[in-house]
Amino acid sequence: MSLFSPAEPAPPEGARDDDHDLVERLKPVLMLDSAEPAPPLALGYSVIRTAGKSPSSKFHIVPLPGGMVIEYAIWHDWDIQHLYDLEHVWVHVDAGGAVARVEGSMHGMRVAIDDGGGLPEMQGTRPVLYVEPGKHAIWGVSRIMRFIAGARIAEMCGPDAGSGGIHLGNTFAENGAWSATAEQHRLARLAMKRAAFVPRFDFPAPAAEPALVPWTALEHWIPKRMQALISALSETVPHLEAILLDCGDTLIDEATEVKRPGSEVVITAEEIPFAMDAVRALHERGYRLALVADGPRETFENMLKPRGIWALMEAHVISGDVGAHKPSPKMFSAALAGLDLQEAAKPHIVMVGNNLSRDICGANEFGLISLFVAWSKRRSHQPATPQEAPDFRIDRLDQLVAMIEAIELALPERETAHE
Q1: Where is this region: Disordered (predicted)?
Q2: Cα 266 to the chain's mean position, in Å?
């Protein structure tokens, strides 16, 4: 069970058929790296006696004359780079019932598996296969795996963990069995980044084996399992609930403001370099955004609507509407209400602003995570009180997305669901 997998639905059970005993006798022994975070949960088998399209993969299968191919579809909830992983082993059986050849899936390919003598290592009638750490490609010899691909495997299990999000390039998803929002993709990537590990390339004897069921039973179960996995992400993966954004000298350069004569309403101003791109990138990653700014509403509509940013924010909390300025808790309470978030969400909300006495102090006193944007030199960068000391700081807006992602990745493990 992974750190973000639900307990249900459990691996399927299938009625024993006439081939079950044969399939059980020849099923592969899957050797896992001792640090592997996502072991297989089920083996779905098909017995193929005539040439044709594989029941569970993209390949064309041709049995030996008078023989058969036992196709084992190996289900892992995820590999280290994406949610959903279906690997394969093909055991070719000759007319006499002996194992004649073994093939395995390897990063989209089908490759012969052997230890130099035509067959892999055998444990009685069962081929012994080595599962690539993190990615689950099938190998016949572990030392060759490490020699040929060890450095790349380590990269995939470490710096590149989570790069794929939720896998949608498979037959199930393409046929509408599941879909994913930007937030769900982000949470899946986050969960796998949190599960990043260093492969050990040692492969102890398996303590338990995955359930063995007909492919038809596994095929029926996989969509239900994926739906449960995706639904569970928001409850099981620690994540940021919202990003609150100031505007003046956080997104818009106050030094360039032109105000309507006789009023405080800003008509035009220049954006801070990279600011709008950063907001768009946060939205594309599925973060919930809200404006929390001091001034008249018309100012922020003038600044953000023409740039397409206003519509990316789910709530617009403006002092002119609230009747209070930051650091008043009324501003932050209004943001929670506008986002329909509860008090318990506070430790998972970031306030981004340039003003230590308003944005940072207000966020700290309200129990939010504070992020100081030090781009402008118009106001002090030195906290006057401990309450003005920010949790985090950036100097340019092209650093915002990376900082938000780093904050999210570092959230405590146990603080996940808000009740």
Answers
A1: 1-20
A2: 40
Report the distance separating Cα 104 and Cα 95, nearest Å: 21
Query: What 3-state class would DSSP assign to 393?
Result: strand
- Locus of tokens 């590149």: 160
| Contacts with 102 (C-beta within 8 Å, 6 or more apart), sequence order | 28, 89, 90, 91, 92, 112, 113, 114, 119, 120, 127, 129, 140
Q: Consecutive 10-residue runs of the chain (419 residues): their mean pLDDT?
A: 65 79 96 97 96 97 96 97 98 96 96 90 96 98 96 98 96 97 97 96 93 95 96 95 97 95 93 98 98 96 97 97 96 98 97 98 98 94 96 98 98 59
Instruction: Identify whether the C-beta of residue 251 lies closer than 8 Å to the C-beta of residue 276.
Output: yes
Structure tokens at 117: 């003598």
Name the pTM for this structure.
0.93
- Torsion of the alpha carbons at 38, 41, 46 and 47, rounded to the nearest 10: 90
Position 4 scores a pLDDT of 61
Q: How far apart are CA 2 and CA 5, in angstroms?
A: 5
Beta carbons of 104 and 137 less than 8 angstroms apart:
yes
Contact 217, 41 (CB under 8 A): no
CA separation for the pair 384, 371 (Å, rounded): 16
Residue 413: how many CB atoms within 10 A of its CB? Answer: 9
Q: What is the largest CA-CA distance in the chain?
A: 96
- List, in order, residues 6 or more apart from 55 with CB less than 8 Å away: 46, 48, 71, 215
Report the run of H or E that residue 350 belongs to, with start and end: strand 349-353
pLDDT at 417: 41
Element (H, E) at 82: strand 82-93
What is the bridge-based pairing of β-strands 109-112 and 242-245?
unpaired
- The fold of 242-409 is Rossmann fold (3.40.50)
Residues 211, 40: Cα–Cα separation, whole Å:
9
Q: Are 170 and 84 in contact (CB under 8 A)?
A: yes
130 Ramachandran zone, left/alpha/beta (phi>0; psi -120 to 50): beta
Could you state, in order of their start, the residue ranges of all structural domains in the chain?
Answer: 20-236, 242-409
Name residue, tokens 């005539």: 50
Is 372 within 8 Å of 392 (Cβ atoms)?
A: yes
